[in-house]
Write a structure and sequence with these properties.
By secondary structure, this protein is mainly α. Helices cover 56% and strands 8% of the residues. The chain has 6 helices and 4 strands; from the N terminus they run ααββααβααβ. Strands 1-2 form a two-stranded antiparallel ribbon. Strands 3-4 form a two-stranded antiparallel ribbon. Strand 1 and strand 2 form a beta hairpin. Helix 3 packs antiparallel against helix 4. It starts with 5 loop residues before the first helix and ends with a strand. 35% of the residues are buried.
């Protein structure tokens, strides 16, 4: 499984800000560094987040709820999750406006990783290998 590195997350954020507007800048570098290990945590010999969708949900939740960037946290969180899923053999398709609506729900309802995981799974499909 390929996980995102801090440099990947920073690059994704920079590209999003360049393409959609906003301010560049990191508010809390520690959150970004912790995301190198958070999705792959093991507790008492078991994966804390055993499915690919739970792992992707950690990128979304931690970036959106911890606000490590000055701007673009919701956009960066959801794109990091989709890049992670794509890097690991999934394609992600969501109707127009669905991402904005869902990221706002994450904040307003303080959604847990399981709820975020269910949503990511609903809009993802395994890419068939040749």
């Amino acid at each position: 499984m390929r996980y995102l590195l801090a440099e990947d997350i920073l690059h994704i954020h920079s590209m999003i800000i360049d393409e959609t507007g906003g301010m560049h800048g990191v508010r809390n570098h520690h959150v970004i560094l912790s995301l190198e290990n958070s999705p792959r945590q093991i507790v008492f010999g078991k994966e804390l987040y055993p499915t690919i969708f739970l792992k992707a949900a950690i990128y979304v939740r931690d970036i959106i709820m911890s606000h490590p960037f000055i701007d673009g946290n919701k956009r960066t969180g959801i794109i990091c999750a989709t890049v992670f899923l794509e890097d690991n053999g999934y394609t992600f398709t969501i109707p127009e406006g669905g991402i904005e609506e869902f990221t706002l729900r994450i904040v307003e309802e303080k959604l847990d990783p399981e709820s975020i995981s269910t949503w990511l799974n609903k809009y993802s499909r395994k890419i068939k290998s040749k």
